[in-house]
Design brief:
Layout: E1 2-7, H1 13-28, E2 32-35, H2 41-51, E3 56-60, E4 72-75, H3 82-88, E5 92-96, H4 100-111, E6 116-119, E7 127-129, H5 133-147
Parallel strand pairs: 1-2, 1-5, 2-3, 3-4, 5-6, 6-7
Length: about 160
């Protein structure tokens, strides 16, 4: 499963720390961190995931390198339009703080019925407000796992 972590490139120290914890906890649940691939919240989530032994995917708005903690770099050259690609690549979304870019990602998430869990972010109907990084990850992982059908090689409905 891929869980998107979204937020500002120019985040506060508290947001950076929260995002790093979120990335670490996502990795601890054997899930992949998917993000916009830049600095700030995105870098922190990837850094935490790498410290936790996890995988990271960055969907960049440009054709550059992204942050140093990315395992997979997807260079889109699409600017803000890459927000749609990012949201559609995840089963659940965690928003940490954020500006208008984060707001657009939240909007796309809600429009496409992706669950969004927020930590000090936009107060919008449909965004589940979380008090801690741990709560955000627990809820996002649960939602991500419930949203995907079994990937059994036998397929759904077939018995062993």
């Amino acid at each position: 499963m891929q869980i998107a972590v979204i937020g500002r490139e120019d985040c506060s120290a508290e947001e950076y720390e929260a995002a790093e914890t979120i990335g670490y906890l996502i990795a601890g649940n054997h899930e992949t961190v998917c993000c916009g691939g830049l600095g700030g919240v995105m870098e922190a989530a990837c850094r935490g995931a790498k410290e936790g032994g996890g995988r990271t995917v960055g969907i960049l708005p440009h054709t550059g390198e992204g942050n140093p903690y990315l395992d997979v770099v997807i260079r889109t050259g699409m600017g803000h339009a890459r927000n749609v690609v990012l949201v559609n690549s995840a089963e659940a979304v965690i928003a940490v703080g954020g500006g208008y870019g984060t707001l657009s990602e939240i909007a796309v998430s809600l429009k496409t019925e992706k669950p969004v869990f927020g930590l000090s972010t936009w107060k919008i109907e449909g965004v589940f407000v979380c008090a801690t990084p741990e709560e955000a990850v627990i809820l996002a992982v649960r939602a991500a796992r419930l949203s995907r059908p079994s990937r059994s090689p036998r397929g759904p409905g077939e018995s062993s």
